[in-house]
Write a structure and sequence with these properties.
The protein has 382 residues and is mostly beta strands. Helices cover 3% and strands 49% of the residues. It has one helix and 28 strands. The protein has a four-stranded antiparallel β-sheet, with no helix packed on it. The chain has a four-stranded antiparallel β-sheet with strand order 4-5-6-7, with no helix packed on it. It has a four-stranded antiparallel β-sheet with strand order 8-9-10-11, with no helix packed on it. A hairpin with a 4-residue loop joins strand 13 and strand 14 (198-204). The N and C termini lie far apart (61 Å).
Length: 382
């Protein structure tokens, strides 16, 4: 008995330590980069600090004298930024590279290269920082530019020129390449052609002199006159979503490892709506539970859908006014707490709080005023 009591006494003397919770390594703040059209009050690219706990923002820096940096991408190392220079059809477009200091938000022009097309409107980059991919809207061509070790852009090494027309004679008189997105595993590049109602699929091999070759199949068609625009994937890579600008329809696909199979198509337009449709951007929430889309034209709204994790199908949740005119682009912060929408024609960016359980949006008091905002990108602040 004494031995048992002694053992119990020894045990009771052993200090008990509370288990430590795993550290949350998600940054509490991010740099928000804003691409713009410089035809109005804007002069170039703006950098703000964004605080994920409150949705507040603080101005950091800007780079001026940049022609229409209407779309941006950020290198994986967080130290380089790339933009299109979306000039009109009267002269060839170009793309620019910038150095970026994520601690201070400083951004500075490095160099510029021709895009070998007109009206470049979209740019993306691979994780290894080997190439950028540029959608030349006006000329209907996709361009590939290598990246040097110092972050500068080298001349175009590959141009893929689309051809064809669509049934909408005003908008589809020729090809109009609108987006260029790498698949999550970066084995494929997918790019939309609004003018020919096609999603084009190419294999990507960065070590090759011309890194893109047609996949098999290489084309996915949507209904004539719908005008495919932007795409996004669920985090588990199972499903892909494509929004059509003129049709105002979201196409749902089983991604199927580079061979997309259509599952359904659902309209973002409200029943009975008679105004102009101008669907723009589309993003899946970081947790993969909800999909958001913007509709410009006369609607000026954000539409929310719930995603079925097993089938990828969409269920309507709500539609919210964008509070401004022409919600061209929007972004969900990496924590999933907030959604920011850029209203191009009313010179403002509004911040919405996201309910992670329901997907619904609540307007906050946070707002950024900047001329003709057209692209929002987050990158970790250091």
């Amino acid at each position: 008995m004494k031995r048992i009591l002694l053992a119990m006494a020894l045990l009771s003397a052993v200090p008990v330590f509370a288990q430590k919770k795993p550290k949350d390594n998600t940054p509490k703040s991010f740099d928000l980069l804003i691409g713009t059209y410089t035809t109005g009050e804007s002069k170039g690219i703006y950098v703000y600090r964004f605080y994920t706990e409150t949705g507040a923002t603080a101005y950091l820096n800007e780079v001026d004298g940049i022609d229409n940096p209407s779309y941006l991408c950020v290198a994986a190392n967080n130290h380089f930024v790339y933009s299109v220079n979306e000039v009109g059809t009267e002269r060839k477009g170009s793309v620019s590279s910038f150095s970026f200091d994520p601690k201070e938000g400083r951004i500075a022009l490095l160099n510029k290269q021709p895009s070998t097309g007109t009206g470049p409107c979209y740019i993306s980059i691979d994780k290894a920082q080997k190439h950028v991919f540029v959608a030349n809207y006006a000329s209907g061509a996709l361009s590939v530019l290598p990246i040097a070790k110092d972050g500068t852009l080298l001349p175009v090494v590959q141009t893929i020129q689309d051809a064809g027309t669509g049934p909408n004679k005003a908008r589809q008189e020729g090809p109009h390449v609108h987006t260029a997105v790498l698949s999550p595993d970066e084995k494929y590049l997918l790019y939309t052609d609004l003018g020919t109602d096609k999603l084009n699929i190419y294999r990507y091999k960065p070590s090759q002199p011309q890194p893109l070759t047609p996949a098999d199949p290489s084309v996915v068609k949507v209904l004539g006159g719908h005008g495919p625009r932007h795409i996004d994937f669920t985090p588990d890579r199972k499903f892909m979503y494509l929004i059509t600008e003129m049709g105002g329809v979201i196409y749902v696909y089983d991604y199927n490892k580079g061979e997309p199979k259509q599952l359904e198509a659902i309209s973002i337009v409200a029943d009975g709506f008679k105004g102009a449709v101008g669907a723009a951007d589309i993003h899946v929430s970081p947790d993969g539970k909800f999909l958001y889309a913007t509709n410009r034209g006369d609607a000026n709204e954000i539409v929310v859908f719930a995603i079925n994790p097993d089938t990828g199908s969409l269920t309507f949740v709500e539609r919210k006014p964008s509070m401004g005119k022409t919600p061209r682009n929007f972004v969900i912060d990496p924590t999933g707490n907030f959604l920011l929408v850029a209203n191009q024609m009313s010179d403002d960016i509004y911040v919405y709080k996201r309910d992670k359980a329901t997907g619904k949006l609540t307007l906050t008091r946070n707002k950024i005023s900047v001329g003709n905002p057209s692209c929002l990108k987050f990158t970790p602040a250091e």
